[in-house]
């Protein structure tokens, strides 16, 4: 079992602590949180060992799970890597692209494994549909959330939209060509609503909308490709695949047939991939344990986390 320690015991940090404590792949050693009152409360309530400093925790573990505010990701990761510890780091990887590049380079030099917490890669609805996504040419994402003060220290692009950026980069096998975007601040010092259009060299276009002051929650992405449409509802954990094939000569009574102006007939087929319920956060943490134990590339590597941040920064620079 890998010895793990958590930096940060806020809302998400407590979830990580609980799951690491449950996992058969980790031994939870303890945690550190600079806010003494909260840290002591968590330690007393759950019985986790509270370390007195970041340094002491890093020295006691094999893996450092960084669940601190984004602004401190770089310093925490740098300390851990310099001491030869593998890192799991919440998204976004760091606050700036320069910091991300530095972390990626340092980890490579020290032969350290690192994974970024883009948890939607482990969403069961996406897992069920991703093998159906082949060469999407148009992608539309809507990620809307009701207002929550957590996360407003960064723009909505880094808070919410970056999830969809990572998903898109994982399925579009082409370089980003152009980015156009607009954003507006409503209640925060940084944009709360943003829309972006990402154009890829292969002709694919992705349109992303993110809001953290919506009246309802929505996390839905639609992928359009030749002869197929794939819908992934990350919130409701549902997937749908709609395929179009040449219509048979004698279609069934209830078959859906479309005919164009040239007389070509196509039949529409509906498929709902089996979605297997899971705990996405536990799965991402345990997949990282597997990567460390087997010396393989993590599902969401530091390089991929850096590329997601790079595109996010391109979007922010448009504002």
How does this structure look, described?
By secondary structure, the chain is α/β, with parallel strands linked by helices. It folds into two domains: 2-120 and 280-301, Rossmann fold (3-Layer(aba) Sandwich); 121-240 and 271-276 and 312-316, Dihydrodipicolinate Reductase, domain 2. The protein contains nine helices and 14 strands. It has helices at residues 11-22, 36-46, 54-59, 73-82, 97-109, 124-129, 156-171, 280-294, 302-316, and strands spanning 2-7, 26-32, 63-66, 86-90, 114-117, 138-144, 176-184, 193-200, 205-211, 218-225, 228-233, 238-246, 256-259, 265-271. The strands form two sheets. The chain has a nine-stranded mixed β-sheet with strand order 7-8-9-6-10-11-12-14-13. A five-stranded parallel β-sheet has the order 2-1-3-4-5, with helices on both faces. A hairpin with a 4-residue loop joins β8 (193-200) and β9 (205-211). The longest helix is centred in the middle third of the chain and has 16 residues, at 156-171. The protein starts with a strand and ends with a helix. The mean pLDDT is 96.
Number of helical segments with 4 or more residues: 9
Low-pLDDT residue spans: none
Question: How would the global form be characterised?
Answer: globular
Helical fraction equals 25-40%
Strand content: 25-35%
CATH topology of the largest domain: Rossmann fold
Query: Please, what is the CATH homologous superfamily of the largest domain?
Result: NAD(P)-binding Rossmann-like Domain
**CATH architecture of the largest domain, please?**
3-Layer(aba) Sandwich
**Annotation, overall tally of beta strands:** 14
- CATH level 1 class label of the largest domain: Alpha Beta
User: Order of strands across the widest beta sheet?
Assistant: 7-8-9-6-10-11-12-14-13
Secondary-structure-derived class:
alpha/beta
Mean pLDDT: 96
Q: Gyration radius, to the nearest Å? A: 22 Å
Terminal residue distance: 46 Å
Task: Outline the biggest β-sheet.
Answer: 9 strands, mixed
Count of distinct structural domains: 2
Element string (H = helix, E = strand): EHEHHEHEHEHEHEEEEEEEEHH
Protein name: Oxidoreductase
Domain Gfo/Idh/MocA-like oxidoreductase N-terminal: 3-118
InterPro entries: Gfo/Idh/MocA-like_OxRdtase_N (IPR000683), Gfo/Idh/MocA_Oxidoreductases (IPR051450), GFO_IDH_MocA-like_dom (IPR055170), NAD(P)-bd_dom_sf (IPR036291)
GO molecular function, one term: nucleotide binding
């Amino acid at each position: 079992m890998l010895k793990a320690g958590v930096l940060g015991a806020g809302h998400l940090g407590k979830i990580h602590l609980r799951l690491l404590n449950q996992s058969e792949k980790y031994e939870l050693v303890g945690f550190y949180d600079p806010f003494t009152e909260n840290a002591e409360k968590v330690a007393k309530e759950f019985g986790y060992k509270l370390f007195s400093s970041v340094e002491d925790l890093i020295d006691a573990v094999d893996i450092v799970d960084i669940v601190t505010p984004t602004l401190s990701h770089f310093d925490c990761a740098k300390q851990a890597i310099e001491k030869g510890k593998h890192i799991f780091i919440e998204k976004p990887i760091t606050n700036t692209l320069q910091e991300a590049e530095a972390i990626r380079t340092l980890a490579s030099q020290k032969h350290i494994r690192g994974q970024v917490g883009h948890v939607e890669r482990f969403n069961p609805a996406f897992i069920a549909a991703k093998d159906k996504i082949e060469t999407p040419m148009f992608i539309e994402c809507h990620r809307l959330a009701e207002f929550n003060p957590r996360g407003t220290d960064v723009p909505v692009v880094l808070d919410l939209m970056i999830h969809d950026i990572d998903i898109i980069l994982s399925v579009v096998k082409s370089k980003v060509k152009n980015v156009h975007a607009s954003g507006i601040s409503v209640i925060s010092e940084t944009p709360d609503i943003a829309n972006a259009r990402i154009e890829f060299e292969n002709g694919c276009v992705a349109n992303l909308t993110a809001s953290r002051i919506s009246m309802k929650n929505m996390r839905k992405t639609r992928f359009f490709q030749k002869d197929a449409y794939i819908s992934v509802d990350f919130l409701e954990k549902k997937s749908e695949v709609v395929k179009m094939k040449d219509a048979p000569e004698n279609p069934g009574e209830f078959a859906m047939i479309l005919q164009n102006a040239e007389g070509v007939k196509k039949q529409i087929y509906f498929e709902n991939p089996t979605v297997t319920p899971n705990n996405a956060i536990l799965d991402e943490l345990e997949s990282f344990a597997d990567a460390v134990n087997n010396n393989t590339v993590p599902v969401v590597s530091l390089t991929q986390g850096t590329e997601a941040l790079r595109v996010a920064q391109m979007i922010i620079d448009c504002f």
